[in-house]
Amino acid sequence: MLYTPDERDTVFQETDFPPPLDGAPLPTVCATEHRLLLAYYVKLWQPEPPSNKRLNMPVLVNESSLGTVAVVDFRRPAAFFSVPVSNETFDAHPFAFRGLTGAGVFRVEDSSWIRRLKTAQYHHRKPYPGAFSDLKHFIFVFHDSIFEAAANDFEVRTVEGSMGDAQDEMLQSMRERAL
User: For residues 139 and 148, is the Cβ–Cβ distance under 8 A?
Assistant: First the structure.
């Protein structure tokens, strides 16, 4: 873990993001030094075959599955990381018993991670005290991973189609912003 939470960290369910698809939302990250985009399935269009429900079989999801994909464009990102989790390892996350639950999106107020980032920047030869003053700590809990980001803000849009379509749009967005 990149930070050690303390009593000041408070976890809240975030309602400004579409919730990830239960099961396999296939989160995808596209990042540069100054841009951070995260995509994940919100909904699949093809209904689950009745035979799967009877046999308790999961629906197979891949990059060509059709549905609604959320694309989160983080503004002025400072840091991010992703870690694999499972039902057996979820409880090891430091916020597992402080409001972080299964699949969903969360925000950490008075984040120890952001406080650590602020402290670290003071080691720069010319520190800028307000550099990280507007950062927010977001946590996305997916079926098989947890993604965390520290950024000033975000914009969310949806792509109707496949994850491949969303990835193409993300790369195009990266190219346009770079010009």
Answer: yes
Torsion, Cα 26 157 72 41, to 10 degrees, reads -10
Question: Would you call 141 exposed, middle or buried from its count of C-beta atoms within 10 A (0-12, 13-18, 19+)?
Answer: buried
The confidence score (pLDDT) of residue 45 equals: 86
Specify whether the CB–CB gap between 43 and 68 falls below 8 A.
Answer: yes
Query: What is the reported pTM?
Result: 0.88
Assign residue 85 a region: left if phi > 0, alpha if psi is -120 to 50, beta otherwise? Answer: beta
Residue 90, both tokens: 């979820």
- Look up tokens 């296939």; give the residue: 26
**Which tens digits make up the pLDDT trace of 56-113?**
555 677 888 899 999 999 999 999 999 998 877 888 888 888 888 888 999 999 999 9
| 3-state secondary structure at position 112 | helix
Count of other CB atoms within 10 angstroms of residue 87: 9
